[in-house]
Amino acid sequence: MKNLYLFSAVLGGALMMSANASAIDSTGCGLGSLAWRGQSGPAPQILAVTTNTMFGIQTFGITSGTSGCDPNGRITGGTGKMVLAFVENNMEQYALDASRGQGETIETLAGILNMDSDRLGEISQQHFAELFPSQDVDALQVTLKLLEITQA
């Protein structure tokens, strides 16, 4: 009976939430990831993973292509988080290298993203204004835009 109340509370809370999706997610796809989307911290991540695991919803989502899952998706091993960590620590240098289309930060990011550094340099230079729309852009915005343009 307690499990039914817990599930009802979790499901009710999930239905009341509305938040933006994040490309940098440690919980993968599935109903739990959708229900707790946009939340941060250990508790929502644990609830998302528990929901996915407890009900087998993530496996269903992957095989059916529902619940935010892509049956042809690639296992990234946290690529987005690695890119974010790198950009947070090297944003000024990446901005300089991106403006030139070459440099150490581009080579390192290309390694993290598993792509050719010349191609990443070209993309970074072409999309510089999108990556760095203002002086006060933060690392998360740069990372999300970088992941978006490199997957196009």
Topology at a glance:
Layout: H1 2-16, H2 31-35, H3 42-55, H4 57-64, H5 79-100, H6 104-113, H7 117-126, H8 128-131, H9 139-150
Model description:
With 152 residues, the chain is mostly helical. The chain folds into two domains: 2-64, no CATH class; 79-150, no CATH class. 66% of the residues lie in helices and 0% in strands. The chain is built from nine helices and no strands. Helix 5 runs antiparallel to helix 6 (104-113), helix 5 (79-100) crosses helix 9 (139-150) and helix 6 crosses helix 7 (117-126). The radius of gyration is 18 Å and the shape is elongated. The termini are far apart.
Biggest beta sheet summary: none
Query: How many β strands by DSSP?
Result: 0
Low-confidence stretches: 8-24
Order of helix and strand elements from N to C terminus: HHHHHHHHH
Helix % is 55-70%
Structural domains: how many: 2
- The CA-CA distance between the termini, in Å, is 48 Å
Radius of gyration: 18 Å
Q: Tell the overall outline.
A: elongated
Strand content: under 5%
Q: Kindly report the oligomeric state of this protein.
A: single chain
Number of helices: 9
